């Protein structure tokens, strides 16, 4: 089964609508590059079935689909409410308590134990994605906070709580997250998404756990809190990739700031060669209808034009009625933008360190040569993946083909813009290998005689050192 070719990748959340092997195989062929497992829902047993299905599909087809385990993080929720929910009236007073009970119009339970200690008078509490708003009147610093209803409505069980003004003291990785993290690492997850990241320290803690496990997994920092925006440079520096999670970000911050922040974060990530995903409500209306709104089409197209590595689907593919049509639609938008109006070779600021100055110069030069010679492909030899991330970040108008003996990279790089991966384990001589790689690309009809290929590699090849060699080849 052949996969649709595009440069911007699609991350699809799996669930009841997409977890069956036949359905998932078709979704991948139609454009899914990364499968997201949302650990906010479903049991580990459910997730393991899906992981095994993805691995089977990768073995049976020439796909290299990555597995992304998305941890719930310190998500604060209200507890159970009375049947049918409670109607909170504007101006009324309501108690929020850390003592478990069935909530009603007078009292509701919140799952966040330190809540009475962390909140202060006049701070805002948002419930159910900001649909309801409360204001803190007082706290006993023990178990109860008295609030006034600013914007009321019906509140039902287990709705999310956002505290945009409050410095919360919950750790970024909860006990449940640590359990799910170990499970995901044990079963070969390629990417781990950390929710509600607030500082670079959060990332470092998770990296230590991954290193101790000896896992190849890389970290995606989900940007969805004001503290993350305050610390954005340090977070991007510390993480391996970023997800602009616009749902909670648009609740915790003024929503009119989010489009500008999206563009700024994408550029910052490209400057540091870190993949960036745009997420939340991209084709939300397609959960229940087979056609998107025009605004949604614009949103996907603009995210592609911003230079994102990937665009993400949530409910549209996990519980939606039309998962295959959703993927077709998103792929159609991406390929149209990329063939008509994409700003290839987008400028970026490069700040090489002492240890990467040579590979960075080689990557920059390969981009310059690809643009000047109108090369059809850049063929990259890599053991660590560094060169692939770096070359992709320039967004060249040349296909990026990555050859590696590191099997972990085959799936992991599926998140990275423009990259296609191939296993390659012959390490004779640099010249011989470059010729071999170009012949292989010609054989599988990815390049044609007369086209130009830019090759990057390390010399001597067998030492698998840092990239230090570049060659311009014309296909025989």
From TrEMBL:
Q: Which residues belong to any copy of the Pyruvate kinase barrel domain?
A: 6-324
Q: Which domain of life is it from?
A: Bacteria
- Could you tell me the EC number(s) of this protein? 2.7.1.40
- Return the InterPro entries for the record: Pyr_Knase, Pyrv/PenolPyrv_kinase-like_dom, Pyrv_kinase-like_dom_sf, Pyrv_Knase-like_insert_dom_sf, Pyrv_Knase_AS, Pyrv_Knase_brl, Pyrv_Knase_C, Pyrv_Knase_C_sf
Catalytic function, reaction form: pyruvate + ATP = phosphoenolpyruvate + ADP + H(+)
State the needed cofactors, names only: K(+)
Gene3D superfamilies from the entry? Phosphoenolpyruvate-binding domains, PK beta-barrel domain-like, Pyruvate kinase, C-terminal domain
Q: Alphabetically list the UniProt keywords.
A: ATP-binding, Glycolysis, Kinase, Magnesium, Metal-binding, Nucleotide-binding, Pyruvate, Transferase
Q: Give the pathway.
A: Carbohydrate degradation; glycolysis; pyruvate from D-glyceraldehyde 3-phosphate: step 5/5
Q: Looking at its record, which EC class is this enzyme?
A: transferase
- Identify a single GO molecular function assigned to this protein: ATP binding
Q: Does the keyword S-adenosyl-L-methionine apply?
A: no
Work out whether the entry's keyword set contains Nucleotide-binding: yes
Provide the Pyruvate kinase C-terminal domain boundaries. 360-472
Family according to the record: Belongs to the pyruvate kinase family.
NCBIfam families the record matches: PRK05826.1 (NF004491), PRK06354.1 (NF004978), pyruv_kin (TIGR01064)
Q: Name it.
A: Pyruvate kinase
